């Protein structure tokens, strides 16, 4: 059994890493940032990884989880001795580890800078403010910090302007003229927005941005990832899945 397989690209034969994911474990919660990682696994076609889907927040709902991940956050990703906690960093790791793949933009491509910028923009600019709303408006309203949460929700909507403008030229994907992990990372922030109802309360999303999200949700790997996380969550609730 070889640690790679072959891919024919035009007239070239390229050695690709094996898609065996038997050393991989992803600790996850439904509709959480770790979905970026699960979706990437499906898009890459990686097989036999272990998915543990816990109730949110796992530091309180899954006794012993903080012994595995001292932060108590998700995602927590394990690949042998490699351990990672960042939902945008792990897809970057996966496309390098299991590539080559068109989901990665190479340094010699004109959109390489845009690719890196969108990946980091997705969490630092588009996801973080929504987590403030989630915490202080929905989860910990008794702390009296709802005003801060609402302010950050409005701040998030305002920060969509770069995405709105980029998509206004009719492009299908964000960079390099193809689907990449930048699209996975950014579109999760839009999914979270819709889940929290921020698009209805403080939006709406611009037509081109809403169409972009719907286009990505129509991908077979997206649907497969949703189905797997739901089945995995049921397995946890029934005691069939454990840390």
Features:
single chain, 243 residues, alpha+beta, four-stranded mixed sheet, two-stranded antiparallel sheet, 12 helices, 6 strands, 51% helix, disordered N terminus
Strand segment count: 6
Mean pLDDT across residues:
94
Radius of gyration: 19 Å
The run of helices and strands is EEEHEHHEEHHHHHHHHH
Strand portion = 5-15%
Helix proportion range: 40-55%
| Main sheet strand line-up | 4-3-5-6
Write a brief caption for the model.
The protein is of the alpha+beta class and 243 residues long. 51% of the residues lie in helices and 12% in strands.
Characterization of this structure:
Helix 1 (35-44) crosses helix 12 and helix 5 (112-124) runs parallel beside helix 9 (181-196). Strand 3 (24-28), helix 1 (35-44) and strand 4 (50-53) form a beta-alpha-beta unit. This protein is of the alpha+beta class. The chain has a 4-stranded mixed beta sheet with strand order 4-3-5-6. The protein is built from 12 helices and 6 strands.
């Amino acid at each position: 059994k070889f640690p790679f397989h072959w891919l024919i690209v035009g007239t070239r034969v390229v050695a690709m890493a094996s898609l065996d994911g038997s050393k991989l474990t992803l600790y996850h919660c439904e509709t959480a940032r770790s979905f970026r990682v699960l979706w990437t696994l499906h898009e890459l076609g990686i097989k036999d990884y272990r998915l543990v889907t816990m109730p949110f927040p796992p530091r309180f709902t899954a006794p012993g989880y903080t012994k595995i991940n001292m932060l108590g956050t998700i995602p927590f990703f394990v690949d042998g001795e490699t351990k990672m906690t960042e939902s945008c960093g792990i897809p970057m790791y996966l496309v390098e580890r299991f590539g080559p793949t068109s989901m990665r933009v190479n340094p010699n491509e004109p959109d390489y800078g845009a690719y890196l910028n969108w990946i980091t923009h997705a969490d630092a600019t588009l996801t973080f403010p929504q987590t403030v709303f989630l915490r202080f408006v929905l989860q910990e309203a008794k702390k009296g910090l709802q005003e801060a949460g609402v302010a950050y929700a409005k701040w998030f909507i305002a920060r969509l302007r770069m995405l709105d403008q980029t998509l206004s030229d009719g492009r299908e994907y964000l960079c390099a003229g193809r689907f990449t992990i930048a699209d996975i990372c950014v579109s999760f922030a839009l999914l979270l927005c819709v889940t929290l109802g921020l698009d209805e309360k403080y939006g709406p999303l611009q037509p081109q941005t809403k169409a972009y999200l719907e286009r990505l949700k129509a991908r077979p790997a997206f649907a497969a990832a949703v189905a797997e996380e739901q089945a995995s969550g049921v397995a946890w609730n029934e005691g069939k899945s454990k840390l």
